[in-house]
Amino acid sequence: SGINAEYGFIRTALTCVVELCASHRWNDDVVRDVIAVLDSKIINSADAPDSIAVFISESIYSIYSTVDNSESSSLFVTGVVLSYVALLSRTPKKDLTRVITANIFTPIIEESVKLNLHLDTIINRITELAAEKDILTRNRKLLYRFRNEYDVSPERTGYPLYP
User: Is the pTM of this model over 0.85?
Assistant: First the structure.
């Protein structure tokens, strides 16, 4: 039950963070600060266990949907997605990749969550990361697959479908 209490606390903290953004009417500076902390201190932190990043990936869309996001810019969810793009580009763990893919990327691609996203930013960042030379081949393939599934039109992205 200690573990459950810990995750209950994380869910509460995450809800508070999303509510903070909403209470500031999704002000870009507030959202950027929140995303920077989530990214550096939790999702992409070497000190935080992978299980926390997984838990956030499982919770973020449902928490976001419970607050008033009618004034939300695309910045918040785009920032969270970019944070997970960075994590996926680096992780050598297949199980972590699988669960984050299922929770963060698949719902967007399958449109089971309706989000206001800045897809160009995501597509450009995926392309930058996938081109880095030290990245694992498996991660590179996954990133290119995501990029192609977000938008398959080379005319719109300016990129060929396959590298």
Answer: yes
